[in-house]
Amino acid sequence: MIESDQISEAPGSFRREKISVSDLxxxxxxxxxxxxxxxxxxxxGDKERFFGLVEESWERRWFTNxxxxxxxxxxxxxxxxxxxHCITASSGTAAMELAIRALELAGSVIVPAFTFxxxxxxxxWAGIRPVFADIDPRNWALDPESxxxxxxxxxxxxxxxxxxxxxxxIEALQALCDKEGIPLLFDSAHAFGCTYQGKPIGGFGRAxxxxxxxxxxxxxxxxxxxxxxxxxxxxxxxSMRNFGFSGxxxxxxxxxxAKMSEIHAxxxxxxxxxxxxxxxxxxxxxxxxxxxxxxxxxxxxxxPNAADRSNHHYVAAETDSERLGVTRxxxxxxxxxxxxxxxxxxxxxxxxxxxxRTLFPDAGAKLPVTEALLNRIIQFPAGATVDxxxxxxxxxxxxxxxxxxxxxxxxxxxxD
Length: 416
Ligand code: T4K
Hints:
Elements: E1 7-10, E2 13-16, E3 37-38, H1 47-60, H2 68-81, E4 85-89, H3 92-102, E5 108-112, H4 118-125, E6 129-133, H5 144-150, E7 155-161, H6 170-180, E8 184-187, E9 195-196, E10 199-200, E11 207-211, E12 224-228, H7 231-240, H8 262-273, H9 275-292, E13 299-301, E14 315-319, H10 321-324, H11 328-337, E15 340-341, H12 356-359, H13 368-374, E16 377-380, H14 388-403, H15 405-415
Parallel strand pairs: 3-15, 5-6, 5-7, 7-8, 8-11
Antiparallel strand pairs: 1-2, 4-12, 9-10, 11-12, 13-14, 14-16
Helix pairs in contact: 1-8, 2-8, 3-4, 9-14
The structure holds ligand T4K.
Ligand T4K binds next to helix 3.
């Protein structure tokens, strides 16, 4: 009889247990997954609901520019996040640019290097110097103490990230920014549905910036938003995302086109209706990983702070190549061959990406925690679209790799 953890069939996927090292796909064996497992495969709510909303927009012949669905989405998002204003935008990056320009930031701004490159890019494009501070090993977010050391007369703001939904030390960062009299912003791209001290991420700092890219827990295909309790800032942002218009033919300031369209809002409304189910499915997947990775030496799964609620959209782990017996990058290659497209976000770090690598060649030397993490981190396919059987099969594969690491490392050396 065949045990379910030896061979299992799911729609489009076929899994075969590895008996010997030559069974690994990297050495010519059949891949474990015939349909690839991606990190952050997009969530999608009810298809009928989405097409129903699209049809309504079609009949209205109103596709963008303050459409009713964008307005509805903004109201519902603000309610859900417990914040006064939600201003949607065409992407998280566009939302960040709007916030930077609306607050008239200048000089330099403190940011983590352990984040997506878009924040530094938007600062650089606005003529502002990103200053990279180190992260706290406990939550991988901006370390308030490292931040404090970077304070200088020309620092006009701090922009912290909640990486993989783990809240930054908001209280300490806010205290620092209050003392310096500068705004605190959050890149909350990963943190929709997460909380800090019992309150939803979205209402902290001067403003929080979300990405609603298809790979995020909640998304609108492409899109983003700024959430804030500041009425004047909200009004500025609304005008600036629409060329600076304040009426039909009045332009009050410089602006851009960062508007969200109705079809994007339709996807947002659809996903918002399904979001509690998405959270529950993501939590189930996360729990499966906790079981599957529990006893694998050299792979330590990052668990969220028990006091906060996570959206469980990401499963990130630290690898220890000494204990595991293969390097993180060898592991990525072995998994890729099996159809498991794990990633190493945010490798190599913003400070090691252009133009920052050339502009600030010594930045890494002052970021020891960031550098160490970038060389160890791995993200596994996770979230509501990944089922428990797949996670268990992946766990068995990782256990097999760990148990045969010496032989695998030798075979890799011979192959390369
Ligand atoms: N701040 C942070 C912390 C961020 O992570 C991001 C974006 C931003 C700010 C900026 O927000 P946006 O301006 O993007 O709204 C992806 C996303 O494109 C990017 O949005 C995201 N972060 C970043 C971390 O990841 P890539 O180049 O790695 O994407 P890609 O195409 O390799 O896709 C990632 C995985 O998702 C793959 O395994 C394939 C899978 N996938 C992707 C898409 C788009 C699908 O299965 N279906 C899909 O439709 O950047």
